[in-house]
Amino acid sequence: MTDTKLAFIGGGNMARSLVGGLIADGWKPGLIWVADPDKRKTDSLAARFPINTTQDNQAAVEQADAVVLAVKPQVLGEVARALAPMVARQRPLIISIAAGIRETTLRNWLGEDTAIVRSMPNTPALVQSGATALYANPGVSEDQRNLAESILRAVGLALWIEDESLMDAVTALSGSGPAYFFLFMDALQSAGKRLGLNEETARLLTLQTAFGASKMALESSDDAATLRHRVTSPGGTTERAIEVLQQRDFEAIVLQALEAATERSRELASEFGED
């Protein structure tokens, strides 16, 4: 895997994050190519990392063992169809990080025999703290699965799902999930200000509390429900606050929100998959 040639099609934030994570993990920069029509993006990447850059997708893919499709879903069809002849000749592993594009659609664009891994990273990957689910089609070998996992693991957690239909639930939970936490954090900060705290105090207390709770959950063998009960003293302030949330059916609201996001993910997959 140390001599694997890797091409990124698209030089946006997620590609930049993956390149940085891979190099930090010891990937040889000279084996990485990034293609993007925006020369400002490729120049910026080349200034930061000693990698190869080009505006020509074909040139990037020509010698690649693995290709990461990191373009917007709306343009992926055009990009993939243009690359299809070279993909058929080179037979690289294709890793898609484009949200909402199903494996069957990618195969239709790239060729029926293409080895494809579909992945769903989330935005904390930009700070090497992402959560990514991966799905491999039957054409992906065990070595290619390991390769795909090592690439996505460079920016955080990477785990496999065996049923692609679950990718819509993944999108709803972890793909959209950071926004839910930001919403709750914003609400906590605003409530703190209304209770008399100044803006900076409310902000810092909110951020550190969110960080501390996540760190406790990550480092504990107990589940979230157990941890919550452990920090909720009977008759105390936390219990009173939790009662208010539960009276308003907090868990049901969360479920309804994720169901709505899952349904929208299915709709977008159908829309993006149209030729």
Characterize the structure shown:
- The chain is α/β, with parallel strands linked by helices and 275 residues long.
- The protein folds into two domains: 6-167, NAD(P)-binding Rossmann-like Domain (Rossmann fold), CATH 3.40.50; 175-269, ProC C-terminal domain-like fold (Orthogonal Bundle).
- It is 56% helix and 13% strand.
- It has helices spanning 13-24, 39-48, 57-61, 73-90, 103-110, 142-153, 167-175, 177-194, 199-219, 224-230, 237-247, 250-272; strands spanning 6-9, 32-35, 52-54, 66-69, 93-96, 116-120, 130-136, 156-160.
- Helix 7 (167-175) packs across helix 12 (250-272) and helix 8 crosses helix 9.
- The chain is elongated.
- The two termini are 35 Å apart.
- The mean pLDDT is 95.
Shape field: elongated
* CATH-defined topology of the largest domain: Rossmann fold
Distance between the termini: 35 Å
Counted by DSSP, the helix tally is 12
Radius of gyration of CA atoms, rounded to a whole number: 21 Å
Q: Helices and strands in order, then pairings?
A:
Elements: E1 6-9, H1 13-24, E2 32-35, H2 39-48, E3 52-54, H3 57-61, E4 66-69, H4 73-90, E5 93-96, H5 103-110, E6 116-120, E7 130-136, H6 142-153, E8 156-160, H7 167-175, H8 177-194, H9 199-219, H10 224-230, H11 237-247, H12 250-272
Parallel strand pairs: 1-2, 1-4, 2-3, 4-5, 5-6, 7-8
Antiparallel strand pairs: 6-7
Helix pairs in contact: 7-12, 8-9
